[in-house]
């Protein structure tokens, strides 16, 4: 990961006339969102971070990223240094009641985890151990460039964790609060379905059977099967789900509900109770329903066949390999509800979403619209305290 910087001479035009602040979009942030420290505004310092030839701030894993940082000072500013931090990481956090102690009394525990994909710190001016420098008024520009690792996972936001990428410029002042300016950017991975096509291109089938009792008498079976022609899809393709219901019983099937949903799996690395921290892997799962379909009732001693079509929207690719603590997967979840019975049939068909479709499939549309982009926090921040976590 190489980063270069160049200090340019002072430029007189106002910085914001030359570079508009890049906004990261309006992606939804889950309940896990890290609290940003309270702003300490200063009318004397402004900062713009601009990516070269990329106004969207969306990049692919393996891309080379370059841009310009411009500081606009209205007066001389003394600092220890101007630092650029380039970071890409996954983070998980949630709280839960767990048994603890000799009496197994339930207490509040925190489950945490963090994994870094990019972590580069560079001083554009000054140094970490320097005695201080004076930044002149008006505009100062710094150039930067770096490479995103080819194995970097796609950006995502969830209730119990996230994958984020961020540029942070800090004017370090140990004798006062630091001036911090942040610019998030979005990363998407290639996710070529053809790398695993021997599994993804074959039909997938799920089947279940139940019987009902009336006293000591058992009914004939209710059999439900669900089939898709393949399990790998790209945005823009259609999932053709075929349901076959063989109802040999006299019980009416009141409803069959089908959910196309995203599954976010978060895995902790540590558990904290009070002052005690121990390494532990604990999973927490969030289900995000993308689409729901229902089929009509089926009378007893009847067979029925249904076909449901689900168009894959601009959603992030499945992610189960590049991050150890945050996984993204998809499935068709089918629930069969017999009338006047508490019994339920559950069928699940895993679906893999990729950016590049299987060979011979229709070309998908761009997935960039479905990637959650973070709101720019390109404001001055007091980050003297570590970020707080909340569920």
UniProtKB/TrEMBL annotation:
The keyword Ribonucleoprotein does not apply. Transmembrane segments: none annotated. SUPFAM superfamilies: E set domains (SSF81296). GO terms for biological process: protein transport. Coiled coil: none annotated. InterPro entries: Arrestin-like_C, Arrestin-like_N, Arrestin_C-like, Arrestin_domain-protein, Ig_E-set. It holds the Pfam family Arrestin_N. It comes from the Eukaryota. Keywords: Sensory transduction. Residues 218-358 form the Arrestin C-terminal-like domain. This is Arrestin_C domain-containing protein. It comes from Anopheles atroparvus.
